[in-house]
Amino acid sequence: MNAAKPSATIWYTMLRVGIFIGSLVFVGLLVQFGVLPKGLGHSNFIWVILLALVISAPLSFVLLRKQRDAMSAQLVNKVENAKAKLEANRSQEDGVVQ
Q1: What is the 3-state secondary structure (H, E, C) of 70-93?
Q2: % of the chain with per-residue pLDDT over 70
Q3: Any stretches that span the bilayer, and where are they (predicted)?
Q4: In a 10 Å sphere around its CB, with 0-12 CB exposed, 13-18 middle and 19+ buried, how is residue 23 labelled?
Q5: pLDDT of 31-54, one tens digit each?
Q6: I need a surface site. Which of 38, 47, 59, 85 has the fewest CB within 10 A?
Q7: Which letter does DSSP use for residue 42 in this model?
């Protein structure tokens, strides 16, 4: 049985979510052990999520450059193929009308 390779977009998204979850756990542990403040009142959960987003964004930008480039190349190929098919369909329609 041959396992299908996931597309570059799915792979990039999975890695991006993984980095966010890792950041979320890391920030949650820092808040739990008192290294970071817990926030004001009941805002602890929102504080942890926002801080995890701020940490995971630059990490993803730096660490996932290769995957992002692969995803971009895959998307460019798909767009070029779609444009070629559209142009072929247009030329067929022009030939029928004339």
Answers
A1: HHHHHHHHHHHHHHHHHHHHHHHH
A2: 85
A3: 12-33, 45-64
A4: buried
A5: 888 888 877 666 688 888 999 999
A6: 85
A7: T
